[in-house]
Amino acid sequence: MGDRDWVDPTVDDPLVASLSEGVGGPVGSRAAGHPWWTPIRVLLALTAVCMALGMVQKGNCYEDTWQNGQARYTHMCYSDLPYLYTGRGFAELNWPYSDDAQVRDRFEVMEYPVGISYWAWGTAWVTHWLNGSPDLESRYGASTDDVGARPDVHREMRIFVIVNALGFAVLALLCTWLLAGVNPRRPWDAAAFALSPALLLTGLVNWDLLAVVFVAGALWAWSRDRPLLTGILIGLGTATKLYPLFLLGGVLVICLRQRRYRPFGLAALGAAGAWLVANLPALLSGPSEWKVFWTFNSDRGADLGSIWLVVQQALDTTPDPFFFDPHTINVVSWLFFGLWCLGVAALGLTSPANPRLAQLGFLIVAGFLLINKVYSPQYVLWLLPLAVLARPRWRDLLIWQAGEILYFASVWWYLGGYLAPAAGGDAGFYWAATLIRIAAELYLVIMVARDIWDPRRDPVREMSYATTTRSKAVAV
Predict the structure, then answer these.
(1) Hey, is 257 helix, strand or coil?
(2) What is the rounded CA–CA span in Å between residue 133 and residue 118?
(3) Helix (H) or strand (E) holding 446
(4) CA-to-CA distance for 34 and 4, rounded, in angstroms?
């Protein structure tokens, strides 16, 4: 890529262009910068700053090792990592899929897919190495089963969080690099990922960034016309979180439009093979423990963030024996999601131009989240790499993330009891925040769907359309 051979956001994005007036206006043809600070290096630096601020945001909880029950809500610094370090046996370096009776009597099975379990187990080993490998046997004879309450384990818990946070920072940097390379002429689109408020606030809540990097990698591989690698990354992502599997639906629509069936076959084969290989160690060592992820998610009822919980609480019902029981929610959710996927497929197959994988992937994953029975705050990360490429417009992305930030704040205050009425019950403000979050996501869904239906509105295509129009005018 030659000097300045890329689309500059101060020229391309109306919001960025207007904001640039305060520092001299949009970049002109004579603009110059330091040759070392290429777009990629600037983006990586911005990502590093964002992740560092995310670590600072968790500082209040880190100081007391997440032992202050209310601080995690008042300061919105909750993280699953320290609790699962002790609650799932990682403090004892137990293999997450061990079928040892002593281990299973003391610790619950890890309820996440194997990719997350492997990562947590590996970072637990790094934690012990950094902490000097304390005596594990003494913990089995502890007077309390709550290992997390033991002061001698608190140092380990903090180290475990640091190790994971540094690992997440590396993953975020890799995500930025991959997203910037999907469209070489538009590396700055990745800035919306690098500077995302959602990334800052939710990056350390759980291990979701592990799946995000596989999604970013799949988008990059597909842009390089490498369908087998695309499938492998989708398969590894699915072994980490279920949702990367939905990218295969977008690949299928694109291949059907182009009548290129071999790339889809390679992608599907690569995904299936990678998923199987990733799951084999867990499946062979503890098949019952491996199944926990599937049974746990099948049996759970309406949970935080979902439209199901809002309706259930607003109607003042306990889990209804029919409509709100887990089986009914599962059936209705999957039926809705199936219809949503058919709608996305119809849109993609009938649009005037070939839709982009990021657009189709965003629409499919958004539909899954909108009707899912749990919508945790960090699930915004699932959409983030897809959204910044599907609709690279700061105004629309900030509107969407404003809804996510409102929900992020409200869910912690709700769990801390600060939104509940004095007489008890559930807070209407929390329901409103959930609905606003859904509305903000639907807004971005509409914008992406409009871009697919009318490619002239797609920021990635509009310049090429304008060039084509000018060429036709000259020819006439």
Answers:
(1) helix
(2) 19
(3) helix 428-453
(4) 12
In degrees and rounded to multiples of 5, residue 305 shows phi and psi of 90, -10
Give the Cα-Cα-Cα angle 178, 180, 181 (nearest 5 degrees).
65
State pLDDT tens for residues 373-396. 999 999 999 999 999 999 999 999
d(Cα 118, Cα 116) in Å, to the nearest integer? 5
Residue 193: closest CA among 34, 366, 437, 382: 382
CA distances from 119 to 89, 95, 388 (A): 14, 11, 27
- Residue 409: pLDDT over 80: yes
Residue showing tokens 């403090």: 91
Buried/exposed 25-57: b ≥16 CB within 10 Å, e otherwise? ebbeeeeeeeeeebbeebbbebbbebbeebbeb
Backbone angles phi, psi at 118, to 5 degrees: -60, -45
Q: Which pLDDT score, from 0 to 100, does residue 326 have?
A: 87
Q: Report the range of poorest mean pLDDT among 434-438, 440-444, 445-449, 470-474.
A: 470-474
Confidence at residue 136, expressed as pLDDT on a 0 to 100 scale? 55
Residue 25 has pLDDT above 90, yes or no: no
**Dmax of the chain from CA atoms?**
88
- How far apart (Å, rounded) are the C-alpha atoms in residues 343 and 253? 11
Q: What is the mean pLDDT of the chain?
A: 88
Cα angle value 312/317/321 (rounded, 5°): 95
Residue 427 has pLDDT above 90, yes or no: no
How far apart CA 345 and CA 439 sit, in angstroms, is 22
Which pLDDT band holds residue 308 (cuts at 50, 70, 90)? very high
CB atoms within 10 A of CB 252: 17
Rg (CA), the chain: 23
pTM: 0.91
Could you give the CA distance from residue 350 to residue 120 in angstroms, rounded to a whole number? 44
State the number of CA atoms in the 13 A half-sphere of 347 facing the CB: 25
Burial degree of 304 (CB within 10 A; 0-12, 13-18, 19+): middle
Q: Determine the Cα–Cα distance for residues 376 and 383; give it in Å rounded to an integer.
A: 13
For 334, residues 6+ apart whose C-beta sits below 8 A from its C-beta are: none
